[in-house]
UniProtKB/TrEMBL annotation:
Record has Methyltransferase as a keyword: yes
Skewed-composition ranges (Basic and acidic residues): 7-29
CDD domains, per database record: AdoMet_MTases
Region span, Disordered: 1-29
Protein name stated in the entry: Methyltransferase type 11 domain-containing protein
Entry keyword set: Methyltransferase, Transferase
Family designation: Belongs to the methyltransferase superfamily.
The Methyltransferase type domain, residue ranges: 59-168
Length: 226
């Protein structure tokens, strides 16, 4: 994929065009499918919310992935998919009308209340926001990528409940991901160290697990509260 095309992945029009031109509304996976994710979710995520509980789950930029449907089949029925491509929603929403679909951009979700979700899941949305930037030279990251990923991270942090979990699946190196997600206005702590989901190679798919911690007051806020 050329850099010019990869750069367009941050825009809804790109995905509308891509999915509007496809006759087959079959699910499609980026990086890894549910089969590769199963072991990771079984060990690190599902035990936090055993079957019978009803965590509120938000799928961020869910695209044509089957992950929401797989989770639903396991009993995790309180799910919201946030997707800015109308063409994707038109294809995927009929597959399970019980899953809510919101036509929002993950960088700006004003209609979603703060502190409202237990678990946020992203498979390749972060990747789409910065796929055309370098994966390791932090000083060379284009400013628009820094802005997009910071806005995204702050919005995910905002809509999660305190102690809520954010899992981000992508192929970028840990220091690159941490640099772009652990930004001012957030206080992410690590649920675990980045976990490889695919064998070592030129592009390793990793699971990054983050937990929403409390925001420390600024000096002026602390002084005012004293």
């Amino acid at each position: 994929m050329a850099d010019s095309e990869a750069a367009e992945m941050r825009n809804a029009d790109y995905w509308d065009g891509r999915y509007s031109n496809e006759d087959d509304p079959a699910t499609k996976e980026w990086h890894v499918g549910p089969d590769k994710l199963e072991g990771y979710l079984e060990e690190n995520i599902y035990p936090r919310w055993p079957q019978g509980t009803t965590p509120k789950i938000v799928q961020l930029g869910s695209g044509a992935s089957s992950v929401p449907f797989e989770m639903y089949s396991r009993g995790y029925t309180d799910q919201t998919c946030v997707e800015f491509s109308a063409a994707v929603i038109a294809q995927m929403a009929p597959k399970n009308p019980a899953i809510r679909w919101l036509p929002h951009d993950v960088r700006n979700m004003p209609e979603i209340e703060s502190n409202s979700f237990d678990f946020a899941f992203d498979k390749a949305t972060f990747y789409a926001l910065c796929a055309w930037g370098p994966t390791h030279l932090l000083k060379s990251i284009p400013p628009v990528i820094v802005e997009d990923t910071a806005a995204y991270s702050r919005e995910v942090f905002r809509i999660l409940k305190p102690g809520g979990v954010f899992v981000c699946i992508n192929i970028f190196e840990p220091r690159y991901v941490n640099h772009l997600l652990k930004v001012e206005g957030t206080n992410w702590t690590d649920l675990h160290t980045p976990m490889a989901l695919t064998p070592a190679g030129w592009a390793v798919t990793r699971a990054y697990g983050l937990v929403k911690g409390p925001i420390e007051p600024t000096d002026s806020e602390a002084a005012a509260a004293a």
